[in-house]
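Its record is quoted verbatim for completeness.
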Amino acid sequence: MRTAERRERRPGGRPAPWTAATTALLVLVAACVTFLTVTSPAAADPVGTCTATKGAVVAVDFGPFGGTVERGCDTTPTTGYDLLHEGGFTTEGTGHDGPAFICRIGYGASGTPYPTPDREDCVLTPPATAYWSYWVAGPEDDTWFYSQYGAMDRKPADGDVDAWVFGGTDIGGTTGRPTFTPDDVRPDGGSTPDPDPTPTGAPGDIDAPGAAAWLKGRLTDGERIVDEGAEGPNHFLTVQTAYALAAAEGSGATLRKVTDFLARTATPHAYPAGADQAPDATAAARLALLATVTGRDPGDFGGHDLTGDLLRHVCPAGPDSGDGPTPGCTARGDFRDAGYTEGQALAVLALLRAGQTPPASTVDRLARLQCRDGGVTSILIRPGENCDGDAGTTGLVALVLRKAGGHTAEVAKARRYLTKNQRLDGAFPAYTGSPTAGVITTAYAAQALRALGETRRADAAVGWLSREQTDAGGFAFEEGVTDPVVYPTTLAVLAGIGTSLADLTAKAPEPTEPPTPTPSTTASPGEGPDLAKGVAYLTGPARLKQGQYYTAGPGTSRADFGLTIDGAYALAATGLDNATLRGIVDFLDQEGTDGEDRTVNDWTGIGTRYAAGGSLGKTALLAEAVGRDPRDFAGHDLIAALEKAVCAGASTAPDRSCAAKGAYTYAPSVFSQSLAVIAQLRAGEEDAAQEPIAYLKSLQHDNGAWPSLIPPTGDFDVDSTAMAAMALDLAGEDAAVDEALSWIATRQLADGGFPGAAGNSVNSAALAVQGLSLDTATYRDEIADARRFLAAQQNGDGGFNVAKEGQRGSDLRASTQAVGGSTGISFADLERSLDGTSPQPTPRPSDSGGTPDIVTPGDSGGSGGAGGSDGGLGADGGSGALASTGVQVMALAAIAALMTLAGWRVVVVTRRRAGTGSGR
């Protein structure tokens, strides 16, 4: 039956479900999935062929099983997973997670893999008390770090050492470390200093509102900081105060007044040589960052193109080049007149936050300022000059290099420097060799440690800061001093809140009028959720990183591409924020990278043997929905890849990529199968989709329902049944669809909800709305009841609970499902034109009612519930507790807010001017 005929039969149109089977349900029922993935070893390189500059070494501790520590070597390492196998080890994955989650390890082709099946069946994810944890060390590291990457995602560098230890650890990797050191297993051995002790200082919270109130009391006319005895404004401290107010209070009258003042006085502050001359790079960078933080345009702030002027004044060479000196340049890559490392770092950060790409020379210049011990000097030294690092500058530069990407080794050395220099009470010396601790150094270091996964150390630093806050609310420069001053107070506020200039955004929303729905958008019956508020929640900068992607969880910059596409589906369904939708689509299509330099292609696995059919289909479907070409999206032909991913038959152990003929490779759920079918059909590939359609139909139970998993497990799932119904409706399989909808209707609860893995589930209700809307005339009442249920689960911030029962609070994954699902638009019909939109160069502010969003780490990325996990290997949709066994998981990515602040060149100077009261 063709589309027009189906719509005539079902006058309500065809509304839609969302993503993939709920992660929690996959865990509950995956015990019936019995296949494992076994990978044999390659011919291992002798350990002696690896050196400190060539190859990587892996060590596996078989001590818990009566064995010893065995080593392997790979002279050309590609991933941690391949390093194991090239090093002579075998691995087995789990039935639930596939080979990416390493459940068993053996040594040599005939060695016994441990743990043995009588101890662990490797069907489900093993418990956190007994699994193979993954540890890494760089060439100069003398201790182990709990890997923030799965084995398939980690890319070892020459000189790296990996370790696998069986036993228990906590989710942050603070326990269960290897009993041997990296030097013990390196080819040449080595000596290892005592590990750095963990700070014992008590945690504590900074009173950010109190500090903000104190800062506002220092403002003259409510708009500027004026030093004691001075007549003119101190622009530097005024900008710093604006940052702190944005962090502590969000957008408000005071912040707007301060920002307006800085815009009016931008010329004398940032262009002291004249408006047509090179700017003071540090001042221009500060103003550009403030413009971004407050939602203004750094390309037109105070009548100046701040970012453009920074780019136009990068030093082509230093004074030793032979071409004659360039004023304000000490080396190639300097921003003219930056003078200090702080200015260079802030200028790079300002460009990054404005959506510009900093010249490579400017970022490399920062990296070259690192000393041998990992610290970073505060002065823009020339090559060969004395290098003396300090904790504050090191923290700032580590954050900027991490944000810029491509300098993993330098960031790792900086992290080691910080952990070595932290005192037991959590503080850092005020300057190199200082016997006293400093607020400025500790604030910068706290932000860097949190961003680099050292949460306990960051908490200890903030705890120390909290005890240095004066009764007035402000902070002094050094410990024990009770006279507060402006500069350290501003830095302490950002450290205490846990944010930084890399993420801080506070802007009051601008009212927008929802666009007129296109003809394909058919409103579902009944009063439902507030979609405008729901969209505002989904697009808030605390959740949508840089306006481009959602992360895999709090404290990580790793993108959850499946969840990101779910959000894009929701925006496409409502049509209430096409600009942000354009930003997400461009990010994916243009192969934008997340904080770990991954693109959507890394998630789909396209072009590799782990290509995931469900992920390919999900991505292709988004391209089709917004008018992009799925045959040329993110640099690949997704439709051709989907056809290649159709299985000719079931694979045999150890290959578990294909469940059956007509399944897609590494598609572990009905969601995955259905998304891929829809994508193929929408691309006009009816013939290529016939076997996948036949396989999907074969999974339907006699009662009309579908199971959640592939291979099927005998369960009956509302979410998967709705998803399969949408796919088969597009395929013209009317009888199967009718049976599915009839079964879904019988599952509705008295309050309008539907049962799911989380209880009376928001995800299940939203998908049921989409499924039942395939025949609105028949199921109008059921749809109306389900929409009222969804409305009752919407919170004041616009987001939705996971379920009626259990923990209250908005969940991102459930919210994407609820917003898009409540429209009733099927994936088969989802269309949203991006005509009239333009590329989105900067993060988009929140639309969340009258309260601005403040970007801080720790916002939930979805703690369970709904779909989104749409493809085995290469799919990031799930969550769990054991990422370092081979799959990236939300709870393990202890990487928080990026970047940090400014003003480091004044640290030593200002500590000697504490008596001025202003900090300058």
Summary: Confidence is low (pLDDT under 50) at residues 1-36, 190-195, 507-523, 842-920.
